Amino acid sequence: MGIRPFNEQEIQQFRAETKGTAQRLHFNNAGSSLPPDVVLDTVVNYLTEEATYGGYEIEYKYNAELNNTYALIARLINADTDEIAVVENASTAWWLAFNGIDFKAGDEIITSEMEYVTNLISFIHAKKTYGIEIKVIPNDKHGNFSLSALETAISPQTKLIAITHIASTTGGMMPIVEIGRVARKHGILYLVDACQSAGQVPVDVREVDCDMLSVTGRKYLRAPRGTGFLYVRKTVQDKLKLQFMDGFTTQWVSETDYKIRDDARRFEMYEKNRALILGLGKAVEYALNIGIDRIWQRVQYLANTLRGQLRNIEGISVHDFGDEQCGIVTFTVNGVDSAAVKAKLAEKQINVSVGLAKSTLFFMNKNHLSSVVRASVHYYNTEQEIGVLCDALRYLIS
């Protein structure tokens, strides 16, 4: 039995439950999606109660719901609840995992040409600090990651394979499941950046077989900004150094000793925004109720529709490569700077973003791109909105 596609009534219901869709044509979901109204209401209502009755008191009242956020996230990625830490964003999550690894001089990190700038900075810093080496696996001429090249690159010094599943400035995707099989065969730590994945693509950490996975809330999960989470495999948690500690990090503390708690929340600190955590949980629940498989089918359909229409517009070049592509669609307009394209579309209440070269440095340099326009679709977008976007681009070129 196949995946049941959305019908028009459902799409209109999702849009009715997202007040922002009445104001703008939002094609910047890879930057920050429009949240469902229920997410906004959850955050605002919690803050109102907190301001009225007191922060600690309202935290106690909503303790069960706050803890349920971890269970919902675990369900989303097929993890155990004690393997989830809720943090401020994907960069924090990734940083905690990466910097928890005990690097030594001569250790090697293997990554791909699609790696995100923040992660690349950490690689370079580790090279300067510890003397590690960085190996970058380039995509082939079709834009696909080479598993054979990965196998060849592995050596006894390989400490980590770090892969961004979906890059910031192109619609291509990395084969994270197949890479996971290689990592496991060689017993190498495997870190996946899934900040653009969760909420649009089914992500199963058991199938991916990763040790660590970082996610943001604001993108395809449609959660508030300032939310994210880190997955750490239970058997790996004791192998990662903690970057900071407080009373929440420990199971117990005496005047002379302490014991670290035995779950992934050891990577958190006590003080955090409870309203946003509830909002994150509500966003995950909203996505789960729809079905990630159904969302992924819809996103692929809309993205392929947009790419097809863009390729038929003279003067536009689409820059998405690889056999499997996602909801991010990147393109350039001949003779028009990407920032100018974004500004002109904004005048028509159409949101897109600009992908800069530094965001995916290896990929952009390889393809001689200084910037691209990034239009990222989500399931609440429509074919009619795609038509309006393409008409606006035709007008811009004419």
TrEMBL record:
PROSITE patterns: AA_TRANSFER_CLASS_5 (PS00595)
InterPro entries tied to this protein: Aminotrans_V_dom, Aminotrans_V_PyrdxlP_BS, PyrdxlP-dep_Trfase, PyrdxlP-dep_Trfase_major, PyrdxlP-dep_Trfase_small
Domain Aminotransferase class V: 27-387
Keyword Membrane attached: no
Domain of life: Bacteria
GO molecular function, one term: lyase activity
Required co-factors: pyridoxal 5'-phosphate
UniProt KW keywords: Lyase, Pyridoxal phosphate
Pfam family, one: Aminotran_5
Family: Belongs to the class-V pyridoxal-phosphate-dependent aminotransferase family.
Name of the protein in question: Selenocysteine lyase/Cysteine desulfurase
Organism taxonomic ancestry: Bacteria, Pseudomonadati, Bacteroidota, Sphingobacteriia, Sphingobacteriales
